[in-house]
Design a protein that fits this description.
The protein is built from 7 helices and 4 strands, in the order E-H-H-H-H-H-E-H-E-H-E. By secondary structure, the protein is an alpha/beta fold. The radius of gyration is 17 Å and the shape is globular. The two termini are 15 Å apart.
Length: 163
């Protein structure tokens, strides 16, 4: 194997989560919190890419702490009941990589709990490491922290990793 370790993002890289979970949850919360506002899926994705999810909520929509908590609770309800599917072919690639002794790590702004759930339910495997939103903000993606930690944990060099 050319690479010993694969570091992969989760939402909308590995699983198709925005159209199936994130956007419908956002629309549901928005109907209560800002009924005068509406966003298409494309507009929502553009805003999240442009600002980041939480800055979109706080800076653009001006959600206060209670509204953010409400949005998170609605999202959890959706995430608990709708499991996003991995993009076609990716499960086979990841299973094969793992079966050959490869190290699979997930670096995401999603929750470790839901990432693990998605991997087990869709593939029957667990990533070797998950670095998600549970980390302190300054250590989360796009910080190099997770990559450095993975290198330390597994004794890897840069050329051993495909990110």
């Amino acid at each position: 194997m050319k690479y010993k370790c694969l570091i992969i993002d989760h939402d909308d890289t590995a699983v198709n989560s925005t159209p199936t979970v994130n956007y419908p949850a956002f629309v549901s919360a928005l109907k209560k919190l800002r009924p005068q506002e509406s966003y298409t899926l494309e507009e929502f994705m553009d805003e999240v890419i442009k600002h980041g999810f939480y800055p979109f909520m706080t800076d653009v929509l001006k959600f206060n702490e209670e509204e953010i908590e409400y949005q998170e609770n609605v999202w959890r309800e959706y995430a608990d009941n709708i499991m996003p599917q991995f993009f076609p072919g990716l499960c086979d690639v990841l299973r094969s990589f793992k079966a050959q002794g490869g190290i699979i790590c997930v670096l995401s702004q999603s929750s470790k709990e839901y990432i693990l759930q998605d991997y087990i339910a869709n593939m029957g495997i667990k990533p070797d490491e998950i670095f998600g939103c549970e980390l302190k903000k300054e250590l989360q993606k796009p910080s190099p922290y997770a990559v450095t930690e993975i290198q330390k944990i597994y004794g890897l060099k840069k050329e051993d990793i495909l990110l």
